[in-house]
Amino acid sequence: MYQLIATDLDGTLLSPDHTVPPHTAQTLRDLQARGLRFAIATGRHYCDVRGIRDVLGIEAYLITSNGARVHDPHNRQIHAENIDPALVRALVQPKFAAGTSLNLYLDETWLIGEPNEDLLRYHQDSGFTYEVADIPSIDGEGVAKILYVSAHAHLLALEARLLAEFDDTLYVTFSALDCLEVMAPTVSKGHALTVVMDELGIAAADCIAFGDNLNDLEMLQTAGHPFLMGNANPRLVAQLPGVPQIGSNTEGGVALHLRTLFGL
Length: 264
What we know:
By secondary structure, this protein is an alpha/beta fold. The chain has ten helices and 13 strands.
């Protein structure tokens, strides 16, 4: 039966203002008291998600940077994959980064090319923030994720260029319409979820997963019981035609579905 709940954050577990709804936190605490295990799977930085987990008040594995990092409930890193440094050095140059807000995620640090106050609204619960850096001059070592933030039309064109030029040497995905993310080619939330399931000795058939965007695809394909949010990206819905949709994050859809599923 169900033993593990894996969930995305933005557009899924969090409210539209990117904070934890109290009803959702209480639901997860009630399920933890019943013995359920949790994995938070997100494109966000580990340091940020660690703070969100504290607000939720649960023990949970943290799958961050879309699976480039996995930490256990005691903050022990159990999995890490970085982008090849030579590729990082190429990808942060104006040829690709022009017209975007350029961000890099390392183990403990979030680097940004120029201040972007709009991004800080995503981190109200954790208080995590960026460091401004001369990104084009970095050596490219230790980078878990590159994040380009821009208008969706611009990022669609950038996505096409990256896929055409780098093919299978990168994993390129959207976490939101204005967020294009780049990781090592073997990175995904799905692969990271298998790391967690192996650690816990839990089968995919006993795992529930919730997601709303393209970076959730592999996780939803890996879990035995996947669910799409009512507000899910149409491109994701089209790739998962047999996966049921639940309520939106606006109405706390994950918590409502879990309370029904477990009879809370």
